[in-house]
Structures
1.
Amino acid sequence: MPLYIDFHKLNFLPTEEELRKGHELDLEVQEEYRVRFQQFWFNKNSSTVFCLIEAPNAEAIMHCHWAGTGDTPCNIQEVEPLYLRLFMGEPGALKHDLTFTIDGKVDPANRTLLLIMLSDAVPTKGNATLRLRFTPPLQLKEMIIDILSRFKGRFVEQSTQNSLVGVFDSPVNTLSCAEDLKDFFKRYAKENDLDLGFRMALHSGQPLTNEGGFFEEAIKQTKRLCIISQPQQIIVSSYLKNQLETETEATMLASSPSTIKVLSEPEEEFLHHLFESIEQNLSQESFNVNMLSTLIGISRPQLYRKTTSLTGRSPNHFIKDLRMQKALSLLKSRKGNISEIAMEVGYSNPSYFSKLFYESFGHTPSSMNATS
């Protein structure tokens, strides 16, 4: 049977005993609905529960929960076993199906993501040109994966994205890995005579939210952070910063102020409104800075100051960059021809769109279509 994960947001903070009793109520009726509960995770900081279940369909899970505990999930999504293992890791110790970490704590199901974007790498000597923005050479990719694994990270293939993603159980391992990767990229560029640029973003997220698929929201937020990061910079979300509890981890964040940027919650809130406002209007060719400032509810000078401070780009430039990022994703996933994709990201003139795309990525849209 298919494998599903569901998400519950509780309005109280249960004890382990209350969790066990509630789970037993679901187990009593699971055969009636042809479902089988395998394990569940509990995050006490947010009072959220995530259940892993074999079931014929999502409706059966919904009815089983209602008959058992009288509760219904906020979201249910089918999950591939491979992706489940990559994101959640090997199954931890179970006590009445409640998942525990290897150090004996209740597993909250949160995982830390490290997302890497590589920019053009062009030899400083000789005539050969090597483009890494879209697909790193296999040797470099394997070396990156090896570094991730040394810090107990798991590489997740994102076939339609121009990025590499590692998943970690430990926030401190994620930070250590990012620092090691930064040094590795410098060595690799020097040894191979390359001008290699990178951006990295670190964020912690949960398997499901009210909407979207398995870790979809967490990946989206991490990619947004990577987009706004500066070249050769590691950017850390405020949510991940709040998870770093030990003095060692706090010291790591403060140790490299020039290469690690930690966002505050107000900064992330502004960025959320900025991305949402632009992404919802990408197909409108007339969408401009005036409309953006109205949607966000601040003046144009305020918008310019905040956007430039956080992204290093003017609002106009940032709108164009998001149009190009969207176009890149559409081209890699083959969702339409070049004219259709140009219209979808707000350009009625395919030639002008192709010119901007080449300026952004060093490749034409047609060459991307041919190699995707």
2.
Amino acid sequence: MMPAPPSLPLLAALLDAERALGRLAEAMRDGELRARLWADAARREAFAGARLDGVAVDPTDFMIATLEPDLVPTAGRSEAQAAHALWLGARTAQGERAPGPAAATETPVGAAAAAWQAVADLESLLAESLPAGDEPLSETDGDGTAPAWTPPWLEGIWRATQTGVSGRDPARLAFSDRQRAEARALLRRADDALGCPALYGGVLALDLLLRPPADPAWAAPLARLIAPAALARACRVPEVWLPASPTLLSERTGMRLALSAGAADWQLWLANAVAEAAHRERRRAAALDQAASGWRRRVGARRSNSRLPDVLDFLFTQPALTVRRLQQHLDTTFRGAQLMVDELVEAGILREVTQRALDRVFVAVELMP
């Protein structure tokens, strides 16, 4: 049974949100910028998600944990491990969809065009569903990996979060029969919601995934982690990954008021939240681009065989590092890696955040969550 058409206030909010998503999709045509934003979004999702779960994680401890949880000072290690687990889950949720630099043959159409088509779909209030929820829940792709929006994909996200907390071998972690059945039911219900046109289906899916209390209860953190995939499916913008937890954390009072006012107000709040989140991600993408330009200016002109540009690019993916980790990444000498770290510290790009002689950790301060 199809839900009733959206009210006029909700329809107006959906159109605003679709346009904001379309502009974000256009910005994400740049594959390098897209990769930076996705990595940054996963960190922000994990940090905010931990705070929503009542974990008072320190930003610096969390950044160290993304490198190696055992390097976090003992006093904050358990909290940092909880956020680290969500970070692993976020990166797994992004999965193979996490993009790299755009290929030279990439065409300037696709996701953005689909986003603007979604706007047109809403404006005409199509009665028929879009294809987003029609595909069967296949178990694996041809190469044996779990495709997005399938029970094995959801199990992989859960396994990543459990590994991040317990440190257990992920090969030994698996859904129980009950969890597997509940995961399939959750994705089916979300697919039913996604059968509605464009972002209206996305908002209904977010209603299902984010409305407390979670059903099933064990899936509450996972529901936040898969919410970006629901929006991407609804609006056909695979280049967009819109983290849910930062908005839920920053707008907790408004969220509670909307929930208490009833379903219509809650859905209107979700539509407005999507628009604001899309605007926020565009601003963050611009800030990351400015950071990259600023870093290059600070280190100045380099000889052609300098590895510092590679280090600057690496920081967007791994903004916390040790000299040894950088040495391994660049396949260089320890002395060479140490000189590059020293230069970045002097330029104000890196800051040492541990006070010890061995395994000193350095963090790119502009990428703190």
